[in-house]
Amino acid sequence: MAILVDEKTRVVIQGATGNQGRFHLAQMLAYGTRVAAGVSPGKGGQEVEGVPVYDTVEQAVLHHGVNASVIFVPAPFCKDAAFEAIDAGLGVVVIITEHIPVHDAMDIMAFARQRGTVVVGPNTFGVISPGKAKLGIMPAQAYAPGPVGIVARSGTLSYEIAAALTAAGLGQSTVVGLGGDRVAGLNFVEVLKRFEEDQATQAVVLVGEIGGTAEEEAAEYIKGMSKPAVAYVAGRSAPPGKRMGHAGAIIERGRGTFEGKVRALEAAGVRVATLPWEVAGLVEEVLSGGGPAGETGPETPLDGE
Amino acid sequence: MKLYEHMAKEVFGRQGIPVPPGRVVTTAEEAADAARELGEVAVKVQILAGGRGKAGGIRFASTPEEAGRVAEELLGTEVRGLVVDRLLVEKKLAIDREFYLGIAVDGAARRPVVIASTQGGVNIEEVPEKLLVRQTVDPTWGLMPYRSRQVARRLDLEGSEARQFSQILVRLFAIFRSLDAELVEINPLALLEDGRLVAADGRLNVDDDALSRHPDLPRVEEGTETERRAREAGLSYVELDGDIAVMANGAGITMATLDIIQHYGGRPANFLDAGGGAGVEPMARAIEILLSRSPRALLINIFGGITRCDDVARAILKVADARGGIEVPLVIRLVGTNEEEGLALLKERGFEAYRTMEEAARRVVAAAAAGNGGDDSGHTRR
């Protein structure tokens, strides 16, 4: 099993004929993802990598029964594309596009909530269930099938951590990118709940960063979780008031600090890594039953080495 | 993008939110003229930061001469680290009570949130949560007037005051939505002795990602010269006060790289996310921008997913060619897509690269500590 996407997921790529869309459609196909159709308004009738392209998502549903979408449409047109996917009744909509206006994002999330669609992103690397399906732009070689569920706000940092886990023989059930924007379709808690229910997932890794309160809310939820959790939080050295690339990665109103997040996570029994390459070791420990959840162990991440 | 107070108030005024009469001035003479027209005035520095009052950026004058003198004193000075080049001269208000009213994006709720308080005129961050009224708004329906009446009621406003407040809130929400604002704020929203509610201050921050939809809004530049250049190059860049320049790809890994440098005792000079999948040209621009600030060392940390390692190598070599070498110790960590090609390109020219962040971070911290005389295989100045 896995969460959100698996080998049965039938995928439509919106923006399939653009540079990014073409390239990643091919990569997803090569990974074994069931990419059934592409959509590019005005390009209906074409093919990309042998995959038929339609003018509308509705046609892709009609002819191929697609139930998930990956959106590569440029930001100004993304709200329309996302609404089209949600309106067509797709279960999962992954929005790779970055720089979507935040008001568009709020509109998309409101509509998705009404229709019961799960939106992943925007500004995300996507979702991968290793060995089953890849809906996004992540480098496939960083992942292998296994028992660890990863949920991350950022892309490259999570690739780094996933690759280290893979190198250590610790594969993943599913890896979910929440996206770097302030308004995102999924939060940590919603993904953790799915991992908690997923039989294939035995431990979870949370890759967080400063800003917002999502990690603190995750900590609250983890207190009641049966599976062990490991975390890494980026932004320890970030000064308040500076937005570190991601729209949400900013310490404001004294909230969203590194210290506050680490404190909350540790209080919930999460093993928090001081350095990203320590995550794999901590996962190994929690999976082998060493270092019981609820205790921090000998390390004191707040004080450094 | 943050707008100055006077710009925000112009928007408010156009949308029917009462604002005090006032004029923007850049000289003492203009300030005196404005006071001649307005009577007793407040002279307010226009800077893109809060806390002006406490920092001495708001003064009062009862005569045109005094207004000119005050303006003379304020113009050209620094308030909260920002140079004052313009003032807003406004008719002085006879204030009875001060409220707070703001609308922001609530990321957790994925909705706009209205925040109001009877404790206005102070830094809202210092107001205890129990004195704040919060209401998230479903963007599908917008802010229905009854919701604004609820907020007024919860602030214990009645009669004419409640009516005025509701109207202001509905109009402020319309501004928030129609201008793609990340934040609109009136602090204080002043209840005057004559019973009128007036926006005594105004803030309006517009979503940078939506600016193209608002060609009519003025453009306000913020940040240092280098930050502006980086922004123009499409890079996500923030200046910090250390001496180790950093380029990485992806916000999360860039932040982590800074943390790791600090962990090993170094001080990062900047945050620079070259972005996922950046090509040779933007990465070369990024490196040039970093070197222009004369750091003691430069760390390039790339985990190539959609970013190609050979492109990274080409960017480094392009800069080295243009400058006749890289003048500070350069430490490179390069793994991922097209790694072999990238490493080969670098090796040909005598540049080496590390495989792990740990080694690279340790090396760059050592190189910065040693200064330009430091020597090791991880950098070259050829």
What's the count of strands of chain A? 14
Give the helix tally of chain A. 9
How many separate helices of chain B? 11
Please state the second-level CATH architecture of the largest domain in chain B. 3-Layer(aba) Sandwich
Question: What value does the average pLDDT of chain A take?
Answer: 93
- What class do helices, strands and sheet pairing of chain B give? alpha+beta
CATH class of the largest domain in chain A: Alpha Beta
Number of strands of chain B: 18
Uncertain segments of chain A of ≥5 residues (pLDDT<50)?
A: 291-305
| SS class of chain A | alpha/beta
What is the count of structural domains of chain B?
A: 3
The Rg value of chain A, from CA coordinates, equals 19 Å
How far apart, in Å, are the first and last alpha carbons of chain B?
41 Å
SSE order of chain A, one letter for each helix or strand: EHEEEHEHEHEEEEHEHEHEHEH
Shape of chain A: globular
What characterizes the major β-sheet of chain B? 7 strands, antiparallel
Shape of chain B: elongated
Q: What is the helix/strand order of chain B?
A: EHEHEEHEEEEEEHHEEEHEEHEHEHEHH
Structure summary:
The complex is a heterodimer of chains A (305) and B (382). Helix content of chain A is 32%, strand content 22%.
Q: What does the model show?
A:
The complex is a heterodimer of chains A (305) and B (382). With 305 residues, chain A is an alpha/beta fold. Chain A has helices spanning 19-31, 57-64, 75-87, 102-115, 155-167, 188-197, 214-222, 258-267, 279-287, and strands at 10-14, 34-39, 47-48, 51-54, 68-71, 92-95, 118-120, 126-129, 133-136, 145-152, 172-177, 203-209, 229-234, 271-273. Chain A has two domains: 10-120, NAD(P)-binding Rossmann-like Domain (Rossmann fold, 3-Layer(aba) Sandwich); 138-296, Succinyl-CoA synthetase domains (Rossmann fold, 3-Layer(aba) Sandwich). Chain A has nine helices and 14 strands. In chain A, the strands form two sheets. Chain A has a seven-stranded mixed β-sheet with strand order 3-4-2-1-5-6-7, with helices on both faces. In chain A, helix 3 runs parallel beside helix 4 (102-115). In chain B, helix 2 (28-38) runs antiparallel to helix 3, helix 4 packs across helix 5 and helix 8 crosses helix 9. In chain B, strands 1, 8, 9, 10, 11, 12 and 13 form a seven-stranded antiparallel β-sheet that branches. Chain B has a four-stranded antiparallel β-sheet with strand order 2-7-3-4, with helices on one face. In chain B, strands 15-17-18 form a three-stranded parallel β-sheet, with helices on both faces. Chain B has three domains: 21-91, ATP-grasp fold, A domain (Dna Ligase, domain 1); 95-213, D-amino Acid Aminotransferase, Chain A, domain 1 (2-Layer Sandwich); 225-373, 3-Layer(aba) Sandwich (Rossmann fold). Chain B contains eleven helices and 18 strands. Classes of the chains: A alpha/beta (305), B alpha+beta (382). The interface between A and B is large, with 65 and 49 residues.
